[in-house]
Amino acid sequence: GLMYLISSARKTYPDIEFKILHTITCENAEENVKRIISDFKPDLIGIRSLSICSGEFETLAKVVRKEAPETPFIGGGPYPSASYEYILEPSPPLVDLIVKGEGEITFVELITYLSKNDSLPSSLTGTVVPLQGGEVKVNDARPIIDNIDIIPAPAYDAIKLEDYKGISNLAYQRADSCAFIETSRGCTYKCYYCHAALSETVRRRSPQLVFDEISEHYHQKGIRDFVFVDDIFNVPKKIGKTILRGIIEHF
């Protein structure tokens, strides 16, 4: 998610400061958004959302529009990628641009364009932008990242695990003492309700990179609970077993 975007952007722009607000960690998300905009004064604002959170997406987008009307504002994640018409067709559109699909490469190119032109691009690969009269422009699709080993580990330093104290994740674990691990992307199935249906294959990380990431959480942060967030973990089954056996051997 967002931590992957940050780690990818830092490879090119190590001096840029990023801030993440996960709405599950705050009692009043709208007030927290207002406070961050006032205190942080961002040069770019983005919202990531699942489809199940479409209502909250719209609510917070309107808050951002009111509090920072001149700040470039983008959306991304499963909901904007699948439902960009609903987001961009209103007048004014809820956001200025949508990153469609995997965002690591697109996000870095977007930052580059914004830093050089002081505006968002209209023709960037992997994006959708609003046009006059409620129309939208779907730019060329961003090719998937075939070798996901090139993506740096997520920037966990961008969040504070203690902010998740008292919160359980979808695996019914304490969210302040677990880490999410992605060993692969994509799925071989085509379930119509799932964003992973857009993929055509499963791309796996090298098992050693997975072990290295788990090891950092385990030894340096004392984390003992891990959640695999793959679209489908056990394809191909051989590599899935390799990772599970490696966890037993290493930890």
UniProtKB/TrEMBL annotation:
Note one Pfam family from the annotation. Answer: B12-binding
Q: Which Gene3D superfamilies match?
A: Cobalamin-binding domain, tm_1862 like domain
Q: Where is the B12-binding domain?
A: 1-121
Keywords associated with the record? Iron, Iron-sulfur, Metal-binding, S-adenosyl-L-methionine
GO molecular function of the protein, one example? metal ion binding
Q: Which organism is it from?
A: marine metagenome
Q: What is this protein called?
A: B12-binding domain-containing protein
Family matches, as InterPro entries: BchE-like, Cobalamin-bd, rSAM, rSAM_horseshoe, rSAM_sf
Required co-factors:
[4Fe-4S] cluster
